[in-house]
User: Which sequence fits this backbone?
């Protein structure tokens, strides 16, 4: 069904209770740039229109967690306000507003090598490619930040070229170094801190993905785009990168 202008309205919102002072809005059941744009637009609208009633907004692939102030409002009032603010949007308004959403392109330096990426050779062999081809394919793409989670600063980036998509490791590592550049399925990411992990490691990035003493604390946010720029080992060290000992 289309409206008088020949435009198809967006799908109805699915709003669910997610805690005593939280609701989660589902915008779809798949990952796509269009749905990500809708999530971003909803963040902008709710921040602008609901002001002090909102404690936090946590965007993800196709959903938005709304945490609100129980002293100022309640479930029913927030749900009604969300529906009033968001359900009138049409596909055209989303496209028009998407160009005004705050986002940026962030270049992350990447030292790709078998020394810095212990799974690089195996991933290349499994894909029937050379190591240089894997590096070229990974660094040629511009990735959207779909979500930030798992750990502060862990940005889920998509999508990698299908030729270098790789499943998670059957046995996760107990320690993955900070700055490790990794691939899992069609996603890629940079580990912001030393942690367990089962993604395929292909390099190291010297950029701190989370720094509580910095402003902002993270170099990327949901909706931003990321590209990786290959650098040498020496450049990695000059940019403040640290080569982990006994981890790789």
Assistant:
């Amino acid at each position: 069904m289309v409206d008088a202008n020949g435009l198809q309205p967006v799908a109805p919102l699915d709003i669910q209770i997610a805690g005593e002072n939280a609701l989660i809005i589902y915008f779809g059941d798949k990952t796509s740039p269009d749905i990500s744009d809708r999530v971003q637009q909803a963040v902008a609208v709710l921040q602008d229109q609901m002001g002090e009633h909102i404690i936090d907004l946590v965007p993800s692939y196709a959903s938005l967690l709304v945490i609100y102030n129980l002293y100022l409002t309640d479930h029913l009032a927030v749900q009604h306000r969300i529906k009033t603010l968001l359900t009138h949007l049409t596909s055209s308004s989303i496209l028009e507003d998407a160009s005004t959403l705050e986002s940026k392109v962030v270049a992350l330096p990447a030292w790709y090598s078998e020394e810095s990426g212990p799974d690089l050779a195996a991933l290349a062999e499994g894909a029937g490619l050379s190591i240089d081809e894997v590096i070229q394919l990974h660094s040629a793409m511009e990735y959207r930040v779909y979500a930030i989670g798992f750990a502060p600063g862990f940005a889920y980036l998509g999508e990698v070229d299908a030729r270098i998509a790789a499943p998670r490791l059957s046995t996760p590592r107990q320690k993955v170094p900070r700055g490790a550049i990794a691939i899992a399925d069609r996603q890629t990411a940079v580990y912001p801190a030393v942690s367990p992990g089962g993604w395929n490691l292909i390099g190291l990035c010297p950029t701190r993905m989370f720094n509580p003493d910095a402003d902002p604390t993270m170099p990327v946010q949901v909706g931003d785009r990321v590209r990786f720029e290959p650098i040498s080992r020496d450049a990695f060290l000059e940019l403040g990168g640290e080569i982990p000992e006994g981890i790789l």
